[in-house]
Amino acid sequence: KLTLDLADTGVKIQPTMYGIFFEDINFGADGGLYAELVKNRSFEFEAPLMGWEQPNSDKHKLNDKSGFATIITNNKEGNKNFCRVEVKDAGGYTLINEGFRGIGVKANDTYNLSIMAANQEGNISKIKFQFIDANGAVVGETSVSPSSKEWKKYTAQLKATKTEAKAKLKITFEGKGTINIDMVSIFPQDTWKNRPSGLRKDLVQKLYDLNPGFLRFPGGCIVEGRVLEQRYQWKKTVGAVEDRETLINRWNTEFAHKPTPDYFQSFGLGFFEYFQLAEDIGAEPLPILSCGIACQFNTGELVPLAELDPYVQDALDLIEFANGSASTKWGKLRTDMGHPQPFNLKFIGVGNEQWGPDYIARYKVFEKAIHAKYPTIKIVSGSGPFPDGDYFDYGWKQLKELNAQIVDEHYYNSPTWFKDNATRYDKYDRKGPKVFAGEYAAQSKDIASAENKNTWDCALAEAAFMTGLERNAEVVHMTSYAPLFAHADGWQWTPDLIWFNNLQSYATPNYYVQKLYGNNAGTDLVAITEGGKAITGQNGLFATAVTDKNTKEVIIKVVNTTDKAQQTDISVKGKKLAASGTLITLKNDNLKSENNFQTETVAPKESTFKLSGGKINVDVPAYSFVVIKVKM
Ligand code: AHR
After folding, report:
1. Do both 559 and 440 map to the same domain?
2. Is residue 351 lining ligand 1, measured as CB closer than 6 Å?
3. Does 255 map to a domain?
4. What is the ipTM of this complex?
5. By the 8 A CB rule, do 186 and 122 touch?
6. Could you tell me which residue ranges the Alpha-L-arabinofuranosidase C-terminal domain spans (predicted)?
7. Which of 10, 174, 422, 542 is a Cys-bridge partner for 126, taking CB atoms 3.0 to 4.6 Å apart?
8. 221 CA from centroid of ligand 1 (Å)
9. Is residue 471 in some structural domain?
């Protein structure tokens, strides 16, 4: 017997409560959200011809009858290399790009091609571009005539004649002579909002559907880098795409279920695009910057405090880039890039998963400088990972003394841990810093192992845990599952919220839990109790309730972690409710159930129900998460 007291309220649900954590891990950006289909398009990987095959070259270069490709390095900042192709045979010379674990093309879809070329002696008459399938059959074709001896951009379109998940791009140079090429690029025409060189539509749609309160970017460990030199530097990710300097991805090999030596960041999805994405999906942007410490799981390299200035300046300049007028240096760049209106940045993160005295010393410098210039910007500070025991061990104690505003906590743990921790935030000081539960996910097996799956067991445990986040909305202001994306053939970490391949994507049970919370966040917390106590696992039930001032609804979330169906039996106090309501049910009898590319066996279903005698009495099936909505 539960009681819903609509008069017992007072705590606001922050609009940022349920958000998105984005990191370029598992091919999340390059090879994923960023819809570029050509890997290593500007020949900037460590091995500059990685991803490119030369089928008619003599491997040992002893007898280059038909021609060869070499890499020329210039002193240009950003785009350092280009490829020189010498064609010796009238039959032409061929390069093949393998894409990101193949190139996904769809029958009848149009693809936009572009290439920079300098036809040195003017002897190359044609460059032919073909999509080829696994058997080498041509499934789409176009060509350009490189008319200029100087660098010039050429564009064309290809239409795919067949759907193929692992096509390749074959480029044939016709004529005899030397040609320089760079920025070989192909994007689907059909991108999110039809932006040229934009983002993959199905993936952004899934983010939009979460109704996220914020978008945190660009990570994760890639913020920090294994060494400081390889940290994420936002200034190198804005401006002309061809000038953005490629960087090795921190997930290049380490923690990979199999090595991923071809993982680099092109930064085609850079900070401008992240801000734009946040705006598109109605989320507050939350950039996280390096605090001058490399990943503490790697080298933990420290920048001396006396040399921290450029790092702090990056933070100040980023705020100017996001919010400054066109008369400021960085506001002008944003304007020139096509967004004269400010992005209205309100939050900034200092460091990712960092802790200890070195972090605190650096955090203090950032805090002072940011708040001196931008007093209203809220700073998210890091803390140690996986705080299992006393959370004060991981930086909280000092951050609390420093009046930090929001502290980012991360935890990857078992489903049992998540259920047991539905009361985790009951003990957090209401007057202390607010909580950003910035990375969490229940693990069915060892983190990042192939056996670690997005099971219903994990998702249900997260749903139960999240009742505790919501019930503690007074102290918990932001939350996000992590990681977000994974390419089925290119992942380094499991489990992940959304899986995709080169053609499709699917939502995991965990995604639907996030979606139900994100779309039913409400505006005000109200009390739901049993015998005067919060519902935190009694009889395997977990519950939380909110009202929504805008839709004039009460929204109750109930999680049943047992193998028996239960009734809610909720008496309502404080306000009269409508005679009927909506019930959304996410359930599965088998805790091991997963979704996949073929079927989503765990997906929400909506129905209606009638209140009886003013009571809300609905079925909460075995192993289910239900959302009950009634108009007030
Ligand atoms: O989400 C994967 C990784 O887990 C993140 O990059 C890091 O912050 C955490 O350790």
Report:
1. no
2. no
3. yes
4. 0.99
5. no
6. 438-624
7. 174
8. 6
9. no
User: Which of these is catalytic: 301, 353, 439, 462?
Assistant: 353
Does 148 lie in the same domain as 30? no
Nearest CA to ligand 1 atom 7: 220
State pLDDT tens for residues 132-185: 999 999 999 999 999 999 999 999 999 999 999 999 999 999 999 999 999 999
Asked about 224 being catalytic, the answer comes back as no
The answer, yes or no, to whether any atom of ligand 1 lies below 6 A from the CB of 439, is yes
Residue 508 lies in a domain: no
Map tokens 């309220």 to a residue.
9
Structural domain span for residue 76: 52-188
Structural domain includes residue 361: yes
CA 1 to centroid of ligand 1, rounded, Å: 41
Name the CA dihedral angle for 85, 88, 92, 96, rounded to a multiple of 10 degrees: -40
> Mind listing the pLDDT tens digit for each residue in 64-91?
678 889 999 987 778 899 999 999 988 8
Ligand 1 centre from 419 Cα, in Å? 22
Residue type, position 257, single letter: H
What is the Å distance from ligand 1's center to 483 Cα?
A: 7
Q: Kindly state whether residues 285 and 377 are assigned to the same domain.
A: yes
Name the amino acid, one letter, at 98: E
Res. 258 pLDDT band, cuts 50 70 90: low
- Are residues 100 and 210 located together in one domain of the fold? no
pTM: 0.97
Instruction: Give the burial string for 431-443 (b: 16+ CB within 10 Å, else e).
Output: eebbbbbbbbbbb
Indicate the top mutation candidate among 410, 436, 443 to test ligand 1's pocket, ranked by most ligand atoms within 8 A of CB. 410
